[in-house]
Amino acid sequence: MAFVDETEITVRSGDGGPGMVSFKSAKNAPKLGPDGGDGGFGGSVYLVGKAQLNSLSGLYYRRRYAAEHGAKGGTNNCTGRNGEDLEIPVPIGTQAYDRQTGKLIAEILEDGQRICLAPGGKRGLGNIRFLSATHQAPHESTTGGEGVEMELRLELKLIADVGFAGFPNAGKSTLLSSISAARPKIADYPFTTLIPQLGVVTVPEMDEWGNASFVAADIPGLIEGASEGKGLGHEFLRHLERTKVVVYVIDPFALDEMPPLDAYETLENELRSFSESLANKKHLIALTKSDIAPEDFDWDEVEAPLKERGLEVLRVSAVARNGINDFKRRVWKLVQEEKQKVEVVETPVSPKRADEEGYIWMSRANEDQDFGI
Predict the structure, then answer these.
(1) How does pLDDT run across 314-341, given as a tens digit for each residue?
(2) What are the distances in angstroms from CA 43 to CA 11, 84, 363?
(3) Domain at 162-339: CATH architecture
(4) What would be the CATH architecture of the domain defined by 1-156+345-373?
(5) Which of the residues 70, 81, 116, 149 has the least number of beta carbons within 10 Å of its own beta carbon?
């Protein structure tokens, strides 16, 4: 199935079931009082994080999702059945935006995380609720509350610690396959990589437990004007926004096309045009294909302009594995440094508070308390 990182859906929670108007009766005793029960609560709609998913393709061909309505109240003070909740599984890193306002209303960051998008309607009250000392035969009942309908845009931003940015054929996919178990398509023509690729990189001897690792992401190659929609990479620049470190992968042997410093500046400008915060992320330069350098190749001439800009430069060869371990260790250290700076951000939507749109997020227990149950 094709990789999909953006789609639009409509969700609707269930209506609450109406209350029942009913009176007890028995042979020779027709007036035993009201016994109409309450309706059931409408089902709610939830987003649920699933680590097994890596694309929104499962939601691409189905655009409407509705939870079940609550059932009508019954006689003999029987409460109607609650509507069944609807859970929509999404990959970790999915964001839900209101299509009308563009407001971020939910974000899935962990496996199993469950966020209420649309709360179910309140249940209707049966006529037994209106019984009082002065009102012995109530015929009143209430209809159930309506569910909430929302038009959403779902956007997936892959969660990776490190992102590779570079021109087509710079060696990003080969580097990813060399440092991880990822097996992206590799060929000697531009835009071989058509979708983002993730790989888990293990870094031996970096902690006492022997399990140091980070997640790296390779996106399709960028070209000048990518942030304006040229080429393929512009569609996937969002996947670099979550990364903590950006590695600019540059082929130093494409000197006839663009010197490494010019290549870096062009790539940085594209990232900055897309997102200022993206360009300001911690980054370093990886000069690839070092194994094909001729004996008289002047590395100092290539690296000096970059280092004069205060940039950190590493030479690597994914094929010969030259410098790979040093590269992994250095990147891991940068990731750890950036992780220590991260502040905890509150989830945009909480089921137990009122949000700015005016939806009331309350538990069913609280709703029971409102009716004096």
Answers:
(1) 999 888 888 898 999 999 999 888 878 7
(2) 12, 5, 12
(3) 3-Layer(aba) Sandwich (3.40)
(4) Distorted Sandwich (2.70)
(5) 149
